[in-house]
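dumping this here so i dont lose it
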């Protein structure tokens, strides 16, 4: 299981079904910045309407904290699509 890498985020399929895990390291900034990014990513995942049996691990890169919501949404949507194509679940 390898990471699908973008400029802002890295994504890979989880081992257990159902849910999204966000990995936001302290080097991304203080708690306010990390929590704001986590809220944005949660909202994007709600928009994606992932199936209950699908799980993701999302690793944020430092540039993600200063990027726009639209850019985060576009990148995460594209990475999830690439991940699905790679697994044959599209």
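and the seq i came up w/
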């Amino acid at each position: 299981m390898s990471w699908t890498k973008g400029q802002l985020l890295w994504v890979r399929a989880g081992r257990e079904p159902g849910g999204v895990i966000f990995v936001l390291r302290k080097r991304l900034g203080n708690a306010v910045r990390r929590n704001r990014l986590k809220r944005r990513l949660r909202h994007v995942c709600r928009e994606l309407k992932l199936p209950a049996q699908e799980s993701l691990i999302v690793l944020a890169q430092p540039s993600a904290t200063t990027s726009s919501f639209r850019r985060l949404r576009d990148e995460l949507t594209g990475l999830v699509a690439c991940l699905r194509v790679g697994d044959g679940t599209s």
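The domain at 4-87 is CATH 3.30.230.10 (Ribosomal Protein S5; domain 2).
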